[in-house]
Amino acid sequence: QGVLVPGLGTFAVVHEQISGTEEVYVVRRPVFQLDMDMSCLQELVFPTVMIPGDIEIMPLDYWWLSQTNSLPPDMVRGCVEETILLYSFQLRTRQHPTFTFKNIGILSCQDNVLCMQFHCSCIAGLESRDIWVALLLT
User: Fold this and answer.
1) Rounded distance between C-alpha atoms, residue 99 and residue 89, angstroms
2) How does DSSP assign 60-120, residue by residue?
3) CCDC81 HU domain: from which residue to which, for each copy (predicted)?
4) Which three-class secondary structure state does DSSP give residue 128?
5) What mean pLDDT is predicted for residues 91-110?
6) Per-residue pLDDT for 11 more than 90?
7) pLDDT tens digit string along 39-83?
């Protein structure tokens, strides 16, 4: 399943098959597909990530988020929307802030390359058997 963060992009978990020298590994790894207004990304390069069509994409669950921090869902939605607007404004004005997703990873821009770097703990939490393969792929 994937989660769409409106105005920013989609997080999903994909299964990837890798042939090793002695066996075939199937690992689960996180991916992020950027979906921002292209005018924000002038002169920036970002990896093209395609999420397979068979993965169900769900909208961000503001109600669930509100339960984790005791704020009303409308307030959570407003905070998320304003944060994404601020981030896109900063990119448009050639500032390169990092956008941290707790327990997931960091969206950063270095040398005009915008990319998502997942925390090792996030990857390890998805893949229990072949953690090192998943870490190398991500």
Assistant:
1) 13
2) --HHHHHHHHT--HHHHHHHHHHHHHHHHHHHHTT----EEETTTEEEEEETTEEEEEE-H
3) 57-128
4) coil
5) 87
6) yes
7) 667 778 888 888 988 999 999 999 999 998 889 999 999 999 999
In whole angstroms, give the CA distance from residue 49 to residue 53: 12
Q: What is the pLDDT of residue 97?
A: 86
Torsions phi, psi for 102 (to 5 deg): -55, 130
Please give the Cα distance from 137 to 135 (Å, whole number).
Answer: 6
Which of 48, 45, 53, 20 lies closest to 34 in space, CA to CA? 48
Mean of the per-residue pLDDT values for the chain? Answer: 84
Indicate the domain borders of the chain: 2-136
Please list the residues that pair with 9 across neighbouring strands: 5, 34
